[in-house]
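Problem 12. The chain below contains 269 residues. Write out its predicted structure in token notation.
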Amino acid sequence: MHFDLKGYLQRIGIAETLVEASAETLGRLQFAQARHIPFENMDPLTGKIPDLAPDALWRKLVENRRGGYCFEVNALFGMALSALGFDAMPIMARVRNGAPRGGPRSHRCFIVTISDQKYLADCGFGGGAPITPVQLDLAGQQEIMGETYRVRRDEETQEEVLERQVPEGWYGLYGFERVPAFEPDFEAANFVTARWDKAPFPYNLMMARVTEDGRNTLFNRALKVTRHGESDARRIDTFEDFEEAMTGLFGLPHQAELFAAVWDRIKDK
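Solution.
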């Protein structure tokens, strides 16, 4: 498939054509995509295995203005990075979400090399992930749009761990190694993640969208809206409120049949 860079940039709200594979461009792309293409797992939740073929991703994420989970949104991100000439190595990570060890390799992201600097770039982790890339070889804490992160070496697992500072301390998001992953890895992990009874995606709705001054996240009916570091949490009680959140806070086009199927899965949670 020929990648339509102009069409992609329009989808993520960038009017001009970008040409330079710089750190500034990388950060701008990640932030813009996370703002305009939400993290969402409606397909696995409603029994579908996401199609990772490039043309299928383009139809879903760009033409139909849906979101997706990491195997989808980061695949699209990777196509854009390739079109712009970035040296981007796809990797697989083990999600921790606060646990001392990760589970199976079930998260897709990138290590991007620019000159002599390496960056962890990721549009597809959902809530709590850095809004712009993390410098991998920079020791200590990194402040990213009001949030604090670090990359720590875990000698026990031989992984690097992306951590976020929370009131209780350092919270591990995921662990990774600097080795490339390939399309069969993503195809297999996508199938397992969408169908495995120990994976969260077939049973819970998870959504996230970055805003200019914060982020919106949803776990089943638990909604959290964060602006300038202050969070407002509430539960969605009605289908009407759910529809409004989907189209307003998460920027999805109205899809009555899909929204009804998702609501039926989460209304009692």
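Discussion. The longest strand covers residues 105-114. Students who got a different answer should revisit the alignment rule from Section 12.3.
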